[in-house]
Amino acid sequence: MHLRPFTIVLSGKGGTGKTTVSSLLVRAFIDAGKKPVLAVDADPNANLHEALGVTVRETLGSMREEAFSRQIPPGMNRHDYVRFRFRQALVEAEGFDLVAMGRPEGSGCYCFANDLLAECMKDLEREYPFIVIDSEAGMEHIARGTIGTPDLLLIVSDPGARGLRTIARIRTIATELGLPEEKIRVVFNRFRTRTAPVDTGSDDPIAIIPDDPAVEEADLEALPVSQIPVDSPARTAVSRLVGEIILLAETRSAE
Ligand SMILES: Nc1ncnc2c1ncn2[C@@H]1O[C@H](COP(=O)(O)OP(=O)(O)O)[C@@H](O)[C@H]1O
Ligand SMILES: [Mg+2]
Question: pLDDT, tens digit, for every residue of 155-166?
Fold first, then answer.
């Protein structure tokens, strides 16, 4: 029997490292043998595929309701067609699959892409032990119920006073959306040992990821950040985080 996948949503201010950490999480789950991983790029400024070194042909956001309905081939029902198109949008790679929400076309509404994703997530539930969702700060997809209730919301933040205020804000939104406190955890990213110790306020971070020159280098050379050396500080920290998450997933299964 397969278990419901353990869903991790990464949220946080732009530029805090959501995409970097998401891609390193995917990598670390694969390294831990927890594959295939489903990576969902739910940020309109989609670039998770680059961080993972794959190419996206089609995004869910580019599909429009009207056109979609017209394109259903004779003899195929809507549900089958939804699954067919979803599989077209799904990029299959070594150890993981990726699907991108992309930018909504036309009216600018994500509703249809959200519906597609929600419908397909139900079908996919048997395949992936872990789903990693690189989200946007507003957590629209949680608000709309697209991705169901995540098992873990990771708020990625830079250490420091401004970061802490953002954490508090996101925490409030998430709690208002009905996410229980214990499913919301903080990840401090780009921590520099030379600076003062992290003032974590009342937050007990689930991980502290160092500022890593290898990440910067990958960025400068436009190489997939998920492929930085296995012993580089950021990758090591994320592997440790994955160990924690696997424990959380096991605890959930035992309940
Ligand atoms: N741990 C880290 N060490 C060094 N650079 C990092 C680290 N995490 C992120 N960065 C850099 O910070 C920038 C923003 O990261 P990114 O993952 O794109 O953030 P977000 O997805 O939250 O907008 C990128 O240039 C990335 O290379
Ligand atoms: Mg990003």
Answer: 999 887 788 888
Residues 147-191 pLDDT 10s = 668 899 999 998 877 888 889 888 888 888 888 999 999 999 999
Measuring CA to CA, which residue among 247, 231, 254 is closest to residue 31?
231
Nearest residue by C-alpha to atom 8 in ligand 1: 17
User: Domain ranges in the chain?
Assistant: 6-254
Q: Whose CA is nearest to atom 14 of ligand 1?
A: 15
Contact 188, 158 (CB under 8 A): yes
CATH classification code of 6-254: 3.40.50.300
Q: Which of 26, 135, 215, 236 has most ligand 1 atoms within 8 Å of CB, for mutation?
A: 215
pLDDT at 2: 53
Say yes or no: CB of residue 209 within 6 Å of ligand 1: yes
Residue among 13, 20, 212 whose CB has most ligand 1 atoms within 8 A, to mutate:
20
Task: Walk across the sheet containing 6-11 and list its strands.
Answer: 91-93, 96-100, 37-41, 130-134, 6-11, 152-157, 184-191, 207-210
Does the reported pTM lie above 0.85? yes
Q: Which atom of ligand 1 is nearest to the CA of 210?
A: 1
State the pLDDT confidence band at 122, using cuts at 50, 70 and 90: confident
Check if the beta carbon of residue 11 is closer than 8 Å to that of residue 149: no
